[in-house]
Amino acid sequence: MDELSDFRAPLYEVKANLFKGLAHPVRIRVLELLSAAPEVSVTDMLAETGLEASHLSQHLSVLRRYHLVTGERRALQMFYSLAYPQVAELLAVARQLLHDMLDTTREQLEHSTANLSASAPSGAPR
User: Fold this and answer.
1) What is the pLDDT of residue 65?
2) 16, 17, 100, 107: most buried, per Cβ within 10 A?
3) Domain boundary assignment for the chain
4) Three-state secondary structure call for residue 82
């Protein structure tokens, strides 16, 4: 059994293993490419990522092992697609979460800067 198919494992362990499959910037980039189109050829992925074929192949292998993508060979070309549309939704939720977190951090910094400026004695450098 693979990391996601062990039915005896607690759900939180299975979820953690899913996130292990996502835990590389190149794999996220590949999934984003696949989220934007019904399928993408390896040739197009190579052009978009700038990776060597062997490195892309390794990342695609991980994504297949974690059941995130499926591949289909047609003649001499290999095409990949998302195994589940929810992967695109997961990426969109992560993107929105990151934007919200960055907005909160920015607001906190602006608030802190305003408080520092307001509490500085007059005549002191700001």
Assistant:
1) 94
2) 17
3) 11-84
4) strand
- Give me 28's structure tokens: 């996220």
Which of the pair, 6 or 31, is modelled with greater confidence?
31
* Answer CATH for 11-84 from 1.25.40.10, 1.20.950.20, 2.70.70.10, 1.10.10.10: 1.10.10.10
Please give the structure tokens belonging to residue 115.
């408080």
| The model scores a pTM over 0.85 | no
What is the three-class DSSP state of 78? strand
- 10 Å CB burial of residue 80 (0-12, 13-18, 19+) is buried
User: Which of helix, strand or coil describes residue 79?
Assistant: strand
Rounded Cα distance, 26 and 7, in Å: 29
